[in-house]
Amino acid sequence: MKLTVLSENTSVSESLEREHGLSIHIETPDRRILFDTGAGCIFKSNAEKLGVDLSKVDPLVISHGHYDHGGGLRTFLEVNSHAKIYLHKQAFEAHYSKRTEGAAYIGLDQTLLPNERFVFCGDDFAVDENIEVFSRVKSKRFFPSCNATLLMKHGDGFVPDDFAHEQNLVIRRNGKTMLIAGCAHKGIVNIVDACKDRLGQYPDYVVGGFHLSGSRENRSEAPDVVDAIGEYLASTPSQYFTCHCTGMESFQRLKRILGEKIQYLPTGDRITIEM
């Protein structure tokens, strides 16, 4: 299985654009999967430079209803004429970010609705026998403090986002499993625990952002919390690949604890995983 990072906050090369967003292309012997589209069209231009043919993607999975993961939906619909797009049924609800000037809309482009290619998933949905998405993760511990600025519309006002719209991808192949999380708003520890409960064992590989830094306030999760998360992740048999909203400061703390069990994935990175 080959993973190519098409969009992320950092980049391996100045020739590849970067942004606050995430898009990962996953190639298996029988499927071409796109996980998220980033914030705009960067994933498309980087795909062209990296030799990834987006017209062959099927399916596209959108992790949650924030623009930095689904902002490229319109571009994807233009370059790919057939792939089904799997989103949580609440992904197109109104999501906002609390800022000094007021609440700013950070949700998906609602003018894209309706579209027959959108498949709206419940809390558990099987794409095929080897690919599924799940949500309904209970936030038992290490709920990211950076979630505090994220809101959703409720009547004429706003309430804290409950992230019911966040779904996680599981890929099974040759007896191994990979868990892919977009931003881990529910907390990466809780998501890994939920995946373990579903599978009866820990996933072999975990990929995605861990939401240990804020996009605008330029702050990281408390060091003692990051260390506790690192100790938990180190206690599992999983291999971790992180990026995007983890933040470099938090990643460096995790790296000191996990060592070779964790790797950062910038834009343009390509990795091959045996599964």
Structure summary, number of beta strands: 18
Question: For the largest beta sheet, what order do the strands appear in spatially?
Answer: 8-5-4-3-2-1-18
β content, as a range?
A: 25-35%
Radius of gyration from the CA trace? 17 Å
How many structural domains in the coordinates? 1
- CATH fold group: Metallo-beta-lactamase, Chain A
Which architecture would the CATH scheme give at its second level? 4-Layer Sandwich
Low-confidence stretches: none
What is the SS-derived class? alpha/beta
Percent helix among the residues?
Answer: 10-25%
H/I helix tally: 6
- Give the CATH class: Alpha Beta
What letter string, H or E per element, gives the SSE order? EEEHEHHEEEEEEEEEEHEHEHEE
Specify the CATH homologous superfamily: Ribonuclease Z/Hydroxyacylglutathione hydrolase-like
Average pLDDT, rounded to a whole number, is 96
Distance between the termini: 6 Å
Q: Characterize the overall form.
A: globular
Question: How can the largest sheet be summarized?
Answer: 7 strands, mixed
